[in-house]
Automatic annotation (TrEMBL):
InterPro entries: 6-PGluconate_DH-like_C_sf, NAD(P)-bd_dom_sf, UDP-Glc/GDP-Man, UDP-Glc/GDP-Man_DH_C, UDP-Glc/GDP-Man_DH_C_sf, UDP-Glc/GDP-Man_DH_dimer, UDP-Glc/GDP-Man_DH_N, UDPglc_DH_bac
Protein family according to the UniProt entry: Belongs to the UDP-glucose/GDP-mannose dehydrogenase family.
Full protein name: UDP-glucose 6-dehydrogenase
GO molecular function: NAD binding; UDP-glucose 6-dehydrogenase activity
Known function: Catalyzes the conversion of UDP-glucose into UDP-glucuronate, one of the precursors of teichuronic acid.
Pathway: Nucleotide-sugar biosynthesis; UDP-alpha-D-glucuronate biosynthesis; UDP-alpha-D-glucuronate from UDP-alpha-D-glucose: step 1/1
Residues binding NAD(+): 30, 35, 86, 121, 158, 269, 334
Location of the UDP-glucose/GDP-mannose dehydrogenase C-terminal domain: 320-424
Residues spanning the membrane: none
Organism per entry: Nitrosococcus halophilus (strain Nc4)
A single GO BP: UDP-glucuronate biosynthetic process
EC number: 1.1.1.22
Pfam family, one: UDPG_MGDP_dh_C
Catalyzed reaction equations: UDP-alpha-D-glucose + 2 NAD(+) + H2O = UDP-alpha-D-glucuronate + 2 NADH + 3 H(+)
Length: 443
């Protein structure tokens, strides 16, 4: 089938590439000429495991093409995917200007029936706006053409996006036209094996499903972080509590890891946007509000522990930081807890020596060459001469700690473990002062 994907960012590129991989003819459209030129040469501008190889393979197979030409894009696909950004406005609501600009383009250039599939995360009611925009644009030109608008939210996780697209746990199709559902069923058939993963519903429910899923996951994390803080005060161990509650299948073990807060481009943005959506319909979403507040507080937790340990004396201190990305297997630092920690430490006069397997360039892009941030090539280099180590991202390379290296490289063996990677008893037995999340400090 012929598919056009507007927006060659994270979602659009993964969607386009995976649809090409199963044999569709995909044309990706983006307004960024530099990005399109890069992609045409098979260079992927984002870090996502497995994506480079897949992009190159499908370009060579002539199933995946890139263009900045909107007219060509609208002419190409029966399916017109919208996967452009919806950055938060100042008030937290999703900015729809890019989505609606694509809708206008589709209305201006379409010559026959099109299925417009929205993949961007958008407020409930956006499909209606997209439909209205296309309808009005067609009307202006005196054209009366048929089209359908579908909400098909994506549930990809950064770092596992290709796998998530190829083996989805569900495909949500929101439409008011059963014929469109059937066409999308055919498009998604290669990903819909073993048992039926396609869940068809009305458009507004599909739009809300996306926010509800992310808000639920964010709630799980904030809930666990709240329990972790409570455990610290009560002298309990949150990791044991986690195992104790996860055993109940109604709760489950997934996504209940306490830590130094959630980050990324999705949870923080989507929780805020849903709060805002609720406000617009006169509903005070108190739980969502609390989820966000708890997370903001949690992102400060390592800083408070560090400040407390050094009795408020942080100027002239150097902190080694392992992990800059908001989670492993990505170079994304949007809303990353590392940023909150670094900025608080700088404010207090400390310096940072940071190591991350892939996000160093991203850190350089965000912070430039500031003196208080040294970006190191190895985890060892980050430790050299530092007063303490803070671990913020659970990259696998950090999991097995070389105790001797920590003891010989740091001025004093102090570790702030923001992801509960290390066993408190083992750390104590090695003579390392170990602060973690929701667990007692052992001596
Ligand atoms: C999230 C969702 O998991 C995807 O399903 C969704 O499609 C995506 O947002 C989106 O809306 O595009 P992502 O932001 O890539 O995906 O990252 P996650 O793996 O969900 O992690 C988010 C944050 O939660 C990370 O900072 C992670 O460290 C934190 N986290 C996760 C915890 O603190 N504890 C946990 O138990 C799990």
């Amino acid at each position: 089938m012929k598919v056009t994907v507007f927006g060659s960012g994270y979602v659009g590129l993964v969607t386009g590439t995976c649809l090409a991989e199963v044999g569709n003819e995909v044309l990706c459209v983006d307004i960024d000429e530099q990005k399109i030129a890069m992609l045409k040469r098979g260079k992927v501008p984002i870090y996502e495991p497995g994506l480079d190889a897949l992009v190159q393979k499908n370009i060579e197979g002539k199933r995946l093409n890139f263009t900045t030409d909107v007219t060509q894009g609208v002419a190409h696909g029966l399916f017109q995917f919208i996967a452009v950004g919806t950055p938060p406005d100042e008030d937290g609501s999703a900015d729809l200007q890019y989505v609606l600009a694509v809708a206008r383009n589709i209305g201006e250039h379409m010559k026959d029936y099109r299925i417009v599939v929205n993949k961007s995360t958008v407020p409930v009611g956006t499909a209606d706006k997209v439909r209205e925009t296309i309808r009005k644009t067609l009307e202006k030109q005196g054209a009366s053409l048929e089209f359908d608008v579908v909400s098909n939210p994506e549930f990809l996780k950064e770092g596992a996006a290709v796998e998530d697209f190829m083996k989805p746990d569900r495909v949500i199709i929101g439409t008011d036209n059963p014929r469109t559902t059937e066409l999308l069923r055919v498009l998604y058939a290669p990903f819909n094996r073993n048992h039926d993963r396609l869940v068809a519903m009305d458009i507004r429910s599909a739009e809300l499903t996306k926010y509800a899923a992310n808000a639920m996951l964010a709630t799980k994390i904030s809930f666990m972080n709240e329990m972790a803080n409570l455990a610290e005060k009560l002298g309990a161990n949150i990791e044991q509590v986690r195992l104790g509650i996860g055993a109940d299948p109604r709760i489950g073990y997934h996504f209940i890891y306490p830590g130094c807060g959630y980050g990324g481009s999705c949870f923080p943005k989507d929780v805020k946007a849903l709060e805002r959506i609720a406000r617009e319909v006169d509903y005070n979403a108190e739980l969502l509000n609390a989820v966000e507040t708890v997370n903001n507080r949690q992102k400060q937790s390592l800083f408070h522990k560090i400040r407390h340990h050094f009795e408020g004396q942080l100027s002239e201190r150097t902190i080694a930081l392992w992990g800059l990305a908001f989670k492993p297997n990505t170079d994304d630092m949007r809303e990353a807890p590392s940023r909150t920690l670094m900025e608080a430490l700088w404010e207090a006069g400390a310096r940072i020596q940071a190591y991350d397997p892939v996000a160093r360039d991203e850190a350089r892009r965000i912070y430039g060459n500031r003196q208080e941030l040294v970006l190191c090539e190895t985890p060892e280099a980050a430790l050299q001469g530092a007063d303490a180590l803070a671990v913020v991202t659970e990259w696998n390379v950090f999991r097995s700690l070389d105790f001797e290296m920590v003891k010989t490289s740091l001025k004093a063996p102090v570790v702030f473990d923001g992801r509960n990677l290390y066993d408190p008893a083992l750390m104590a037995s090695q003579g390392i002062i170990h602060y973690s999340i929701g667990r007692p400090v052992m001596t």
